[in-house]
């Protein structure tokens, strides 16, 4: 932060009070300058409570924080529901903005988004967690749109739907309660509810809501608006679930007659999402009150014309002759994709008594939505997301929690999904192109050359005991889903499941939706623990997954009573920051529990940063306040946060925070202890999460008396007991034991033979009770383990060992009889099929050979090469390295007497496909460049070679092409490793 300008006190004293009064505005401005320019508290992922940034600490409760990315400036908005006016007063909505650098932009404690006096809220109850709904959007100019319900009871009909536009400077566009977009006319009875909002990527937004009328249908409305100079301009939209039905009955002559019915349709739930083309997709759980309709899963879209276009439609006239008419679409106008069309046809008959009858047959050519599925029971938690492909289509992924009735019994609920291709159109969607078939309500023939996506209809997540909500997100070609599920298995606990899907190319042509995890259940990444005691139990809140436009995803979950955990998600649903992620702080501050609630993550579109927001009770008054924390390096798969400081623990035994390892993340997972005296978390044990160990209780004994001695040898003032629920069954597990620098120095002073932690060994001792011993007592079953690695960390050190079983662990100086000291292991790819594995050793004594072992899952290893020991300081051999998977390598050292040890395990990434892919192509607003980060500079040129746009690839893989006129262009990428050119079409 730049230094603040200084005002001389001598100047004020010399020239008197009048000058001081004149300078007062300057002083106020200086104060604002200093306050506003407080940047992100930390950008290196050091997660302590001191790094939490207060957004609002006003009186009363502030809850339900929502974080929204601001475009194009890279900042963030935070909005929340506020009770600062008093517990019995109506809710208000407040908002705050932060710049890309973390500077607060608006008033302290936020701005009230309207001057309305009614209860205003953006959350609502409809069977889903409120964080599954989108209620605010960037205006693409540094400002914020948001929607909310306003409890206007003047006509006795409940809520009205409002929107507000907040300018970049924090001023409001619409006065009063905000711009009212839906309210019940006087004398009518209906209820508007469930508002949602997304951006249209062109400075406007889509707002949706349900109009529920006891006398008529429930209607889902979706409209496209834009604030133009303080006037909210409507670009189009409408009802997306009209439900007309043709019913065949008898006419007076005994023949057929077609009546028109408008059966009551109930909207059980719905959700909207952006379709990557500036449009608004919608999925609906519906109940049609007619015949076989029942429970239905419906889909629709409000789309925008990209160019002026005229479609010619053929339709029957009343006399069954046909005629054509034109529909004109203006660029930028919005319309409903699936609209209802009814052809009234004159009909007549003659009865036997020579009576002549005339009527109208109503032929429903199309209903006002696309029917995707039908079920005996309601669809729950309906959601949708759009996945990109490298071709000229996107993939619409529609999900729901679904049950059915089979043979009279209700099936267990699963997350069911339907996926289908969605055209990246040039002017209008093909469904709204010209249609020469009068029997069809819209054109059903895709254009020639449109890529194909295999229709997807399958399970995305396993069955639960009861219907469950879940979180869904998509970005780039990836999609992610997570849920807290009580599965019908023996442990009766709630499991955290995570699913990862992507778009894969079919041999020849076309695409399909692929399970990255390889399983339809999803993978279990964690579990609650029902111990009956808070200190050893784990209870989770609703898990969330968020994704940005490049396909990077972030998992988050609130561990109730403790903290929020976060982690980036990479291939096969692996969490890059360890099992269940890394805590964003500790449970207490200043002697009080924080009681963190409702975490919400907003990600930047492409640069690997995010902001987490939540509400907690750390304030002395015990009211709810809003805090945020900046997150960095979310797009770097090999990155891990630095971790908390190693600090002393209270004297005696202490149980670390409970932990479950399911073997999925393939990363070191930190088991930490809470230090009541400091309120801080500190690492005690790290375990490589590549084997399902279940619950992993960890106990620590802290000795603060004189150094302890056993068998004439001093040992460390900290010992460990690890007793996992599931043993590793002989499979080696890498473990890191943490201790303070002071504890090491004390041991070093007691044993001058110790020079650094590489001089240490770990005594592994069996433990039948699980209790942490206060001292080492030899039982005759000890095994001395030489660490395969050690490292200095903040506040101390860790030593890394490889074990095939768990128990007590004590640390002392190593004996001289161990056969080898591991100094390092590396793996480096030779090509797409092979890799060199190298290792360095010291003190090699009585070693027979070394065997390099390889695995693709981190659990099942196979021997790949044998190297005879030769007294050398380093060795290497060439081993297989499958191109399509992450590879794990370790080295097994065998003594001449048959005993063996393992090195630490190292990983080698899959062989990267370095080809540059542009999508969507053709593109309209934004162009995404896969693998752009392999180069340094990106240029867009026309076909004559003139440079029209240039940017660093380190900034973003997203290119704004809105200023380019339609035509053919070339993306040129240059860097140290060469150049690349790819052509694309701007619509």
Tally of separate helices: 2
* Strand portion: over 45%
Average of per-residue pLDDT values: 89
Unreliable residue runs: 1-37
Tell me what the structure shows:
With 987 residues, the chain is mainly beta. It is built from two helices and 76 strands. The strands form 21 sheets. Strands 47-52-55-61-57-58 form a six-stranded antiparallel β-sheet, with no helix packed on it. Strands 6, 7, 8, 9 and 10 form a five-stranded antiparallel β-sheet that branches. Strands 17, 18, 19, 22 and 25 form a five-stranded antiparallel β-sheet that branches. The protein is elongated, with a radius of gyration of 32 Å. Residues 1-37 have low confidence and may be disordered.
What order do the helices and strands come in, and which of them pair?
Layout lengths: L8 H28 L16 E4 L5 E8 L6 E7 L9 E7 L12 E2 L7 E2 L14 E3 L5 E7 L9 E7 L12 E4 L8 E9 L5 E8 L5 E11 L2 E9 L5 E6 L5 E6 L3 E10 L5 E9 L5 E11 L4 E8 L5 E8 L4 E3 L4 E10 L5 E11 L3 E6 L4 E9 L4 E10 L2 E2 L2 E2 L3 E10 L32 E6 L9 E5 L2 E9 L7 E12 L5 E5 L7 E5 L16 E4 L5 E7 L3 E8 L3 E2 L6 E2 L4 E2 L2 E2 L3 E7 L6 E7 L8 E7 L20 E4 L4 E2 L6 E8 L4 E9 L5 E2 L2 E5 L5 E3 L2 E3 L2 E5 L10 E8 H10 L9 E6 L17 E3 L3 E5 L2 E8 L4 E6 L7 E9 L4 E9 L4 E9 L6 E7 L5 E7 L6 E9 L4 E3 L3 E3 L8 E3 L6 E5 L6 E5 L5 E6 L5 E3 L6 E9 L2 E9 L1
Antiparallel strand pairs: 1-46, 2-3, 3-4, 4-5, 6-8, 7-8, 8-9, 9-10, 11-12, 12-13, 13-14, 15-16, 17-18, 18-19, 19-22, 19-25, 20-21, 23-24, 26-27, 27-30, 28-29, 30-31, 32-33, 33-34, 34-35, 34-36, 37-38, 38-39, 39-40, 39-41, 42-43, 44-45, 45-46, 47-52, 48-51, 49-50, 50-56, 52-55, 53-54, 55-61, ...
């Amino acid at each position: 932060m730049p230094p603040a300008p200084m005002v001389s006190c001598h100047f004020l004293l010399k020239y008197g009070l009048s000058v001081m009064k004149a300078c007062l505005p300057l002083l106020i401005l200086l104060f604002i300058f200093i306050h506003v320019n407080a940047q992100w508290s930390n950008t290196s992922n050091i997660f302590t409570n001191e790094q939490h940034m207060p957004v609002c600490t006003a009186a009363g409760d502030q809850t339900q924080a929502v974080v929204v990315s601001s475009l194009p400036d890279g900042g963030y908005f935070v909005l929340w529901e506020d009770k600062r006016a008093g517990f019995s007063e109506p809710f208000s909505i407040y908002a705050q903005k932060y710049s890309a650098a973390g500077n607060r932009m608006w008033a302290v404690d936020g701005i009230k988004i309207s001057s309305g006096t009614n209860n205003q809220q953006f959350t609502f109850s409809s069977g889903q967690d409120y964080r599954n709904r989108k209620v605010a959007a960037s205006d693409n100019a540094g400002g914020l749109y948001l929607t909310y319900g306003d409890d206007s009871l003047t006509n006795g009909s409940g809520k009205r739907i409002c929107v507000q536009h907040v300018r970049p400077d924090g001023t409001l566009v619409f006065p009063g309660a905000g711009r009212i977009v839906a309210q019940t006319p006087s004398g009518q009875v209906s209820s508007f509810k469930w508002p949602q909002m997304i951006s249209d990527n062109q400075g406007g937004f889509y707002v949706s809501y349900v109009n529920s009328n006891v006398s008529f249908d429930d209607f889902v409305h979706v409209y496209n608006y834009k604030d133009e100079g303080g006037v909210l301009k409507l670009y189009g939209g409408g009802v997306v679930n009209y439900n007309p039905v043709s019913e065949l009955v008898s006419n007076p002559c005994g023949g057929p007659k077609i009546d028109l019915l408008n059966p009551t349709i109930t909207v059980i739930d719905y959700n909207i999402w952006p379709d990557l083309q500036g449009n608004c997709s919608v999925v609906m759980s519906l109940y049609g009150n007619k015949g076989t309709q029942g429970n239905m899963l419906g889909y629709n879209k409000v789309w925008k014309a990209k160019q002026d276009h005229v479609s010619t439609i053929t339709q029957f006239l009343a006399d069954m002759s046909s005629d054509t008419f034109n529909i004109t679409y203006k660029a930028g106008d919005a319309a409903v994709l699936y609209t209802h069309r009814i052809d009234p046809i004159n009909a007549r008959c003659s009865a036997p008594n020579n009576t002549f009858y005339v009527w109208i047959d109503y032929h429903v050519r199309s209903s006002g939505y696309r029917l995707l599925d039908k079920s005996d029971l309601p669809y729950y938690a309906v959601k949708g997301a759009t996945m990109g492909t490298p071709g000229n289509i996107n993939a619409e992924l529609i999900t729901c929690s679904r049950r059915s009735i089979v043979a009279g019994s209700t099936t267990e609920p699963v997350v069911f999904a339907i996926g289908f291709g969605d055209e990246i159109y040039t002017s209008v969607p093909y469904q709204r192109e010209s249609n020469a078939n009068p029997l069809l309500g819209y054109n059903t023939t895709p254009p020639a050359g449109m890529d194909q996506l295999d229709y997807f209809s399958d399970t995305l997540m396993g069955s639960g005991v009861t219907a469950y909500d879940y979180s869904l997100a998509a970005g780039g070609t990836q999609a992610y889903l997570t849920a807290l599920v009580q599965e019908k298995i023996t442990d009766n606990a709630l499991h955290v499941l995570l699913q990862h899907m992507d778009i894969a190319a079919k041999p020849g042509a076309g695409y399909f939706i692929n399970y990255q995890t390889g399983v339809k259940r999803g993978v279990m990444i964690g579990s609650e623990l029902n111990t009956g005691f808070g200190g050893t139990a784990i209870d989770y809140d609703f898990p969330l997954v968020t994704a940005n436009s490049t396909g990077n995803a972030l998992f988050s979950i609130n561990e109730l009573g403790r903290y929020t955990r976060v982690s980036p998600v990479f291939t096969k649903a692996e969490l890059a920051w360890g099992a269940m992620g890394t805590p964003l702080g500790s449970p207490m501050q200043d002697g009080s529990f924080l009681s963190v609630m409702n975490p919400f993550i907003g990600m930047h579109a492409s640069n690997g940063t995010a902001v987490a927001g939540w509400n907690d009770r750390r304030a002395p008054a015990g009211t709810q306040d809003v805090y945020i924390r900046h997150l960095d390096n979310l797009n770097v798969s090999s990155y891990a946060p630095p971790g908390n400081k190693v600090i002393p623990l209270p004297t005696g035994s202490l149980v670390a925070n409970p932990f479950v390892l399911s073997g999925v993340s393939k990363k070191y997972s930190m088991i930490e202890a809470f230090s009541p005296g400091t309120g801080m978390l500190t690492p005690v044990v790290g375990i490589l999460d590549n084997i399902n160990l279940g619950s992993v209780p960890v106990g620590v004994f802290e000795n603060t008396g004189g150094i302890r001695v056993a068998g004439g040898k001093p040992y460390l003032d900290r010992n460990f007991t690890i007793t996992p629920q599931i043993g590793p069954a002989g499979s080696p597990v890498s473990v890191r034991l943490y201790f303070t620098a002071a504890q090491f120095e004390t041991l070093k002073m007691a044993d001058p033979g110790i020079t650094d932690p590489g001089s240490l060994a770990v005594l592994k001792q069996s433990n039948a009770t699980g209790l942490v011993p206060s001292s080492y007592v030899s039982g005759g079953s000890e095994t001395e383990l030489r660490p395969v690695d050690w490292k200095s960390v903040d506040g101390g050190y860790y030593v890394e060992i490889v074990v095939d079983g768990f128990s007590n662990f004590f640390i002392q100086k190593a004996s001289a009889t161990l056969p080898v000291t591991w100094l390092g292991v590396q793996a480096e790819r030779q090509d797409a099929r092979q890799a060199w594995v190298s290792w360095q050793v010291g003190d090699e004594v009585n070693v027979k050979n070394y065997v390099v072992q390889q695995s693709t899952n981190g659990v099942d290893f196979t021997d790949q090469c044998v190297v005879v020991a030769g007294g050398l300081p380093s060795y290497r051999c060439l081993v297989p390295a499958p191109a399509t998977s992450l590879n794990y390598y370790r080295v097994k050292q065998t003594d001449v007497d048959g005993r063996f040890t393992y090195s630490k395990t190292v990983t080698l990434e899959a062989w990267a496909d370095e080809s540059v892919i542009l999508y969507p192509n053709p593109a309209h607003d934004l162009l995404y460049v896969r693998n752009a980060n392999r180069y340094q500079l990106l240029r867009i040129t026309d076909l004559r070679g003139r440079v029209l746009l240039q940017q660093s690839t380190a900034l973003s893989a997203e290119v704004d092409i809105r200023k380019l006129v339609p035509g053919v262009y070339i993306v040129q990428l240059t860097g140290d490793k060469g150049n690349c050119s790819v052509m694309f079409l701007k619509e």
